[in-house]
Amino acid sequence: MQLMQHKICMVTGATSGMGKATAAALAQLGATVILVARDQRKGEVVRDEIRTQSGNPQVDVLYADLASQQAIRDLAATFKQRYQHLHVLVNNAGGLFFRRETTVDGLEMTFAVDHLAYFLLTNLLLDVLTASVPARIINVSSNAERIGKIAFDDLQRKRRYSAFPAYAQAKLGNLLFTYELARRLAGTGVTVNAVTPGPVATSFGSGGRGLRKIVPLVFRVIGIRAEEGAQTAIDLASSPALEGVTGKVFYHSKELQSSPQSRDVALQQRLWQVSETLTGLPVTTAQQL
């Protein structure tokens, strides 16, 4: 089935879990798939595995540590050197960090990787996405957004850090970003939607100690398989029935009503402006895009 033939897709966090499952499915559908990986060896192994299993040689890998804004800029530049079009961008990479860490840019790791990386990479690729219409952006969020709060007075969690509130803040950020970007791109032919997959049986959250080791174990017990968790993102990337659908959140391939705070337009716009400042992008208004 070559539903995605001649389509170019980029998937971040593509070497494991849902990202890998999404990339593999898109390759199976005939797309040219660019895996974004942090580790070169792992990236090559997964690239070769997907090529073999799908019978599709058009699987490429680009490398970037999404905790580094310079690496994200280099990723976008390298992509544009190799490709003239991008039809699907799946922002999937993320993490849960049990102790406060900072990036090379001095930003709190969860907010930087789980929100700002989506924001920066997408904005850097908007020109090639709009040149490739119809094009689709899919942001992987989480039901944790429902308990999220954007702490504008302490976005970097310097005063008090706890893993789950930091994660919930970033995942709420994904939805605020999705809604605001969809509004800004209305009528352009580029759609933007979000996915909340629920618990997925992957290695997500691994690396903790003591009681923190329980998190990935719980996910493996109660979570669905990565292939099932990825299905909604796959549908949003490929389904003809979803052509033109934008500004929505989906759970198990059905539209979901997200939290009231995620639908707060003033909050969406405020976070956008703060995100522009934190990523060094020019400050814009909705009318400028």
Considering the protein shown, what is the CATH homologous superfamily?
NAD(P)-binding Rossmann-like Domain
> What is the helical fraction, as a range of percent?
40-55%
- What is the third-level CATH name, the topology? Rossmann fold
Q: How big a fraction of the residues is strand?
A: 5-15%
Could you explain how this protein is built, in words?
With 289 residues, this protein is α/β, with parallel strands linked by helices. It has a single domain, classed as Rossmann fold (3-Layer(aba) Sandwich). Helices cover 42% and strands 13% of the residues. It has eight helices and eight strands. It is globular. The relative contact order is 0.14.
Features:
289 residues, alpha/beta, Rossmann fold, 8-stranded mixed beta sheet, 8 helices, 42% helix, 13% strand, globular
Short description:
The protein has 289 residues and is of the alpha/beta class.
Per-chain topology:
Layout: E1 8-12, H1 17-28, E2 32-37, H2 40-54, E3 59-63, H3 69-82, E4 88-91, H4 109-130, E5 135-140, H5 163-184, E6 190-195, H6 214-222, H7 226-238, E7 248-251, E8 254-256, H8 265-279
Parallel strand pairs: 1-2, 1-4, 2-3, 4-5, 5-6, 6-7
Antiparallel strand pairs: 7-8
Helix pairs in contact: 1-2, 1-7, 3-4, 4-5, 5-8
